[in-house]
Amino acid sequence: MFRRVLGKTLGFVGYTIQYGCIAHCAFEYIGEFVVCSGPSMEPTIVNHDVVFSERMSRHLCKIQKGDIVIAKSPFDPNVNICKRVIGLEGDKICTSSPSNLFKTHKYTIGRHLDKVIETQHKAKSASAIHQMKVPKGHVWLEGDNLKNSTDSRSYGPIPYALIRGRVCLKLWPPHTFGTLSESPTQRINKPPSNSDSD
């Protein structure tokens, strides 16, 4: 009796370990389901959307500019973030801090004062935009909702090793099922041309 119970228990433990190993390998090397939260990727991904993040691209170093990725937050490794890859190592990024991006002001004071204030604001915005080169082994991430996203504009480029996977499919809600669209802002950085440097 004791041997029979012990045999069943050991068999159950063995199957549990086997299935656990299979599940671990599946999540580590194939992919995982992710419930997204927050407004930073709107309208591409909204709060509570469920996506599938595949891992093969990460392991094979096949992440490309324009891909949406799940990565560990550089602030807290226990928190995952969902952002779009804007630049890879060696790319030149033209960027501005989120607080200066799309900033608009309306003034109803005098015509002359309006002109002075608007000119000063434009100069301030231009000076806030700067160019940097993504270092080796890093990527530059941004949310599609540029006005409401904490991303590389705040914390800089992140190590490639923090990427967990590439989002390849939206699963929920059902009416949005399918592959993901390109960035609504078309914010894929390229080195500026000679005409832009003047």
Write up this protein.
The chain is of the alpha+beta class and 198 residues long. The chain has one domain (2-91, 134-185): Ribbon (Umud Fragment, subunit A), CATH 2.10.109.10. The chain is built from four helices and nine strands; from the N terminus they run H-E-E-H-E-E-E-H-E-E-H-E-E. It has helices at residues 2-29, 56-59, 111-128, 152-155, and strands spanning 31-35, 50-54, 68-72, 80-87, 92-95, 130-133, 138-142, 158-159, 163-172. The strands form two sheets. Strands 1-2-9-3-4-7-8 form a seven-stranded antiparallel β-sheet. It has a two-stranded antiparallel ribbon with strand order 5-6. The longest helix has 28 residues, at 2-29. It is elongated. The model is unreliable at 99-126 and 190-198 (pLDDT under 50). Belongs to the peptidase S26 family. IMP1 subfamily.
Features:
198 residues, alpha+beta, two-stranded antiparallel sheet, 9 strands, Umud Fragment, subunit A
From the coordinates shown, what is the CATH architecture? Ribbon
- Structural class comes to alpha+beta
CATH superfamily: Umud Fragment, subunit A
Helix fraction, binned, reads 25-40%
CATH topology tier name: Umud Fragment, subunit A
Q: Strand count, sense and closure of the main sheet?
A: 7 strands, antiparallel
